[in-house]
Write a structure and sequence with these properties.
Elements lengths: L4 E13 L24 H9 L6 E6 L9 H10 L5 H14 L3 E5 L5 H8 L4 E3 L19 H13 L4 E7 L5 H18 L2 E8 L16 H14 L5 E3 L7 H6 L4 E5 L16 H8 L3 E4 L5 H6 L7 H7 L12
Parallel strand pairs: 1-2, 1-8, 1-9, 2-3, 3-4, 4-5, 5-6, 6-7
Helix pairs in contact: 5-6, 6-7
């Protein structure tokens, strides 16, 4: 079912740390050495916040379980210097600062325990974890956090906690078409039980220099179309199908059922895909004509109406959301 409008959000992208316990064959974000490793400092974070433009979302992305990585000593030293003991504790503090400065946090920190989800729930408008695939792949042979059953369990825990949630599949990393179907069916099953999945991203693999999969071809546009078509046929209409406009051509995918273009930033790059800049809002509107573009918050309208957010976030959501749960047109 086609929507009358195509949604997107305006964000700033916060790369908390690139230290990660996983070593996926396609990842260009993860630090390989101490020289490449980084943890964002509070001052650097606040500089981004103060230069946020019209963004309402602070998108926090990190490497997974940096405390367990081969660069754990670097990460721990930096976090301890800042006065914290863990990634989750530090990110919670950054989320709190974001809220104080008028931004709604959305955290995607990789695998988290139930207690960690609870610790972050009240300072997040929504959260996310890419399922990527339910297949056992060569690309994940050095990535303990990419175990599909573990990831599905975390997504289920988010449902039990009533956290508005984003997930998705990664197309072209060695999976087969039936694997994509199986992954979509698994997400559908969890949503039918908990009703918490607000969007499913259909994201194409994009090769990165100096990674084992640098020479591997990207998935064809026909594969992307098939994946979007399958997602729209399988998933309930209330789940948005998101396609990243900096990695693919969105209009034909919208015609097949995609209804969201994700977060775009006017002030920060896509640190996961830095070679692929986001289009500006005006360009997005032109690209998807005759479909109408409508701005949303990181929490989707139906969860705004259900009140699936904490008292801490209430003032900002009331400030930004219109009667339909979308972004007010009268600005910040």
């Amino acid at each position: 079912m086609k929507k009358k409008y195509i949604t997107f959000s305006k964000n700033i992208f916060i790369p908390v740390t690139n230290v990660c316990r996983n070593a996926c064959d396609y990842c260009g974000f993860r630090a390989r050495s101490f020289e490449d490793a980084d943890v964002i400092g509070v001052k650097e974070f606040l500089d981004l916040v103060h230069n946020r433009g019209e963004a309402t979302e602070a998108l926090f992305t990190t490497g997974e379980s940096p405390e367990l990585s081969h660069l754990s000593s670097f990460f721990k030293d930096r976090v301890i210097e800042a006065g914290f003991t863990s990634l989750v504790e530090y990110t919670r503090e950054l989320c709190t600062l974001a809220i104080e400065h008028g931004l709604l946090p959305h955290c995607n920190l990789g695998m988290l325990s139930t207690d960690e989800l609870k610790e972050l729930r009240d300072v997040n408008a929504s959260m996310g974890l890419m399922l990527e695939t339910t297949a056992e792949l060569e690309a994940h042979r050095k990535s303990p956090g990419k175990d599909p059953e573990m990831r599905l369990k975390m997504i289920e825990e988010a449902g039990r906690l009533k956290i508005p949630f984003t997930s998705g599949i990664l197309v072209g990393i060695g999976e087969e078409e039936e694997d994509r179907i199986h992954a979509l069916e698994a997400l559908k099953s969890l949503h039918e039980r908990y009703g918490h999945i607000q969007e499913v991203i259909i994201q194409p693999f994009s090769p990165k220099p100096f990674t084992p999969m640098w020479k591997k071809k990207q998935p064809s546009f026909e594969e992307m179309k098939d994946a979007v078509r399958a997602a729209r046929e399988l998933l309930p209409d209330e789940i948005a199908i998101q396609v990243p406009p900096n990695l693919t051509s969105p209009k034909e995918l919208i015609e097949l059922g995609a209804s969201d273009l994700g977060g775009i930033s006017e002030r920060t790059i896509d640190y996961i895909n830095p070679e692929s800049p986001w289009p500006r809002e005006a360009e997005l509107r032109r690209i998807i004509t005759p479909f109408e573009l409508s701005e949303r918050l990181p929490i989707y309208p139906r969860f705004v109406k259900k009140g699936w957010y904490s008292e801490l976030l209430s003032p900002l959501i009331e400030r930004y959301a219109d009667e339909d749960g979308l972004r007010r047109k009268d600005g910040i």
